[in-house]
Amino acid sequence: MDAKKREKALRIFAKVLNDIKPSKLETEATTASVNKITSELLKIVPKDVEIKVVGSIARGTELKGNSDIDIFLLFGKKVGKDKVTEYGIRYGKELAKRMGGRYEIRYAEHPYLRLYIPNIGADIDIVPAYKIINITEMGTTVDRTPLHNDFINMHLNDKQRDDVRLLKALLNSHGIYGAEVKTRGFSGYLCELLVYHYRSLLNLLEEATQIKLPYYLNPLNPEEKGSKEIFEKFNSDFVVIDPVDPNRNVAAVVSHESLSKFIVVAKMFIENPSEKMFYGYKVSSADSYSMLRQYMKANGLSASLLVVPIPDKSEDITWPQLKKLSGAIVDYVARNGFQVYIELVTVKDKEGLVLYMYPSASAKTRMLKGPSVPGNSGAALSFINAHLGSSIIFSNSTLYVMEKVRYESMNEAIADFIKREAHKKHKDIKLGKAKLASTIPERYAEHLYWELLAKTSI
Fold first, then answer.
1. What is the pLDDT of residue 268?
2. Pairwise CA distance, residues 234 & 250, whole Å
3. Please, are residues 201 and 195 in contact by the beta-carbon 8 Å criterion?
4. Are 148 and 136 in contact (CB under 8 A)?
5. How far is it, in rounded angstroms, from Cα 79 to Cα 89?
6. What predicted TM-score, i.e. pTM, was given to this entire model?
7. DSSP H helical ranges for 99-157
8. In the chain, what are the domains?
């Protein structure tokens, strides 16, 4: 990157940081909320249970308007795992009661509480865990989170913390920030480690343009190279070693799609620095429906929308089930002559939305590839006998058959799939109550259009 572009990039960083970094007033309000919560907790929990604030607000890498409060209740190792969870949930419920709020039980490796307290402008997570000094003492996977806090606070300076904020904003604007199973992007901790390793955001973006797979990074040993054994151990070709736990790959959840998008975004910014890359899409709710229809018309696409009722559970539970179901449908319609160009899977309230976009004109026939004839005369004859009545075509030495498609429309194929599968158990997915439409109701348009932008835009 030449000096002129570097200077422009740094000016953009300063301007964007002004928009995304919490103001002094917001930071003071968050600190006051944390102090209020911890003072109430001190009245509830025994003295041998440590109260520790973790996460981005404790590391100084939070974004404006996103100051969620994560509080760990750290127990001694003499307390059994079941009791750690039991006591942690009990203390969290008592806190909600004392502060006039409500709670939800959430699940990671073990249950924790999400609290909603009046006059606290943030969600509050109360997480029970063991207090450990190093990773050898770990009893549950969440125990290492306070160690993450300690590492980041020890190794990042204020400039680098701001660079982490900028990285989060950049990734978020392109739909690849967050380790949730739906996003499969870059976690906050991974952002912090990348900035730590490359020393600055600009260095990271320049180096990201050169990323090749397999990729290996050990923040504690920058010169260390990944080996075949290491990539096999983590069953991944994108490995970033956790400095507090050498047996953990911090990048395990990052999909190839998210990584590829990050590399392209980095290359685009390095070639032509632009503040627009930090601000995502600007589309009004009122325009979403017409924009969605316009996109389909411009690309000659039709749509099938499957709406499935789902329980009020975490997206980390319901989304993978929807994705698996959708994948099965895509495979089924492909075997019957229909090609899905765009597949969108999302959750809105208590409904799973699966939208398929495909060419408006559908073929009446499909081509099936058979065996190569030389040396395979038996297989060739079996292929011909299996498709008697259809047109057999020779292309060079390979057999093909042209046969009529089973279904006249995509909706017909999907409806038949649902009918066949409705009686089977699909965990939380109630296929028997699914609805299928060839038009998109306006109430879903905004949600689906944002998903489309995230899927198709850079």
1. 94
2. 10
3. yes
4. no
5. 14
6. 0.87
7. 145-155
8. 22-143 (3.30.460.10), 156-280 (1.10.1410.30), 285-362+407-456 (3.30.70.590), 365-404 (3.30.70)
